[in-house]
Amino acid sequence: MNRWSIALFRLFGIRLEVHATFLLLLTLAGYDGWRADGAAGAAWEVVFVGLMFGCVVLHELGHALAALRYGIRASRILLLPIGGMAQFDSLPRQPGRELVIALAGPAVNYLLIGLIVAGFGWPPALGDVGLPTRMAEIPHALLLINLMMGVFNLLPAFPMDGGRVLRALLALRFGHARATRWAARSGQVIALVCGSGAIYASVFLGYNLWMVAALFAFIGYGAEMEYRLVRNENFYAGLAVGDVTRSDFLAFHPDTTVAAALEALRRTVPQDLLLISSNGPVGIVTRARIAAAIRAGCEHEPLAQHATHDFLELQAEGALGTAARDIVRRSQQLFPVYSFGRLIGVCDTRHLEESVRLLRLRPPGR
Ligand SMILES: [Zn+2]
After folding, report:
1. What is the distance in A from the centroid of ligand 1 to the CA of 63?
2. How far is the CA of 124 from the centre of ligand 1 (A)?
3. Architecture of domain 241-360 in this structure
4. Which of 77, 109, 136, 306 could form an SS bridge with 146, CB 3.0 to 4.6 Å?
5. Mean pLDDT, the chain, as a whole number?
6. What is the pLDDT of residues 160-182, one digit of tens each?
7. Centre of ligand 1 from the C-alpha of residue 274, in Å
8. Ligand 1 center to residue 186 CA distance, Å?
């Protein structure tokens, strides 16, 4: 993800980054304005999108500064075309703290609304507020944006702030894992109902709500990811990478031919291969790559030509939950495992859940 984001500057020690696709949004907005009203139209659209995302940054800063009160530092605030995201290394399990951090974002929007109303009054007709074309129209356009952000973010649906509020409230009674499951399901039901409604209105009633439908699809997906994250944390709690490290694995010298590897692979369970030179592991050859090499008639080529050299290594002593978080983000399925600088085996994610279930069969205390 880092490759696609551009660092802008630091605010309160927090790095502000924009995703490359955000520039695409600015270009599209500019083009849209230019088609409607030439250069002036383009300028207004770009200024407006800029202001809109200024509000998003302030909203995220609200979360980040509230977290800082508990000693939790956000590593960065990332701006995506769909909104902002403050990233934390770890979030509190205490429901009270989660509640405060979740509410701090929308609170900023309501604070901004209050300031605008104090300075410029409430707009005579909220429905008439649209894209500003004069300076005087900016305050009320900003008011509308903040109102939409404030209301939308409080929907009780993960990964919106309202979903976190709901989880924190449920967690006061039912514990973190169950609260997360319910809050995630609530988010998915809301996403399904509202998303279907938006699609229906777009197809049959002549509204253009495709963006809204896409947003709800994103919410449904985000809810599932959040649920899995918490489920994994509990699932892997108390285990180390070494507990699920396999000592039987297939390793070859990089010069070994594809045909020789296939011969060895035929006599054991299907698995990815480790390439080891005198300096230790240098690459991984997936089963898919071997199959592709054979289909392409490359049987006599060395394995090194079909290997991935960019791979992650794990430490046996590391917590499995933490490693799992890195694992799920990668397409890699075979991970060399080290203990004090020595290769002791591999962790194969295809069998990870099964291994953990077996480990859990042991009576506690052994
Ligand atoms: Zn928020």
Report:
1. 7
2. 28
3. Roll (3.10)
4. 109
5. 85
6. 899 889 989 998 888 888 888 88
7. 43
8. 18
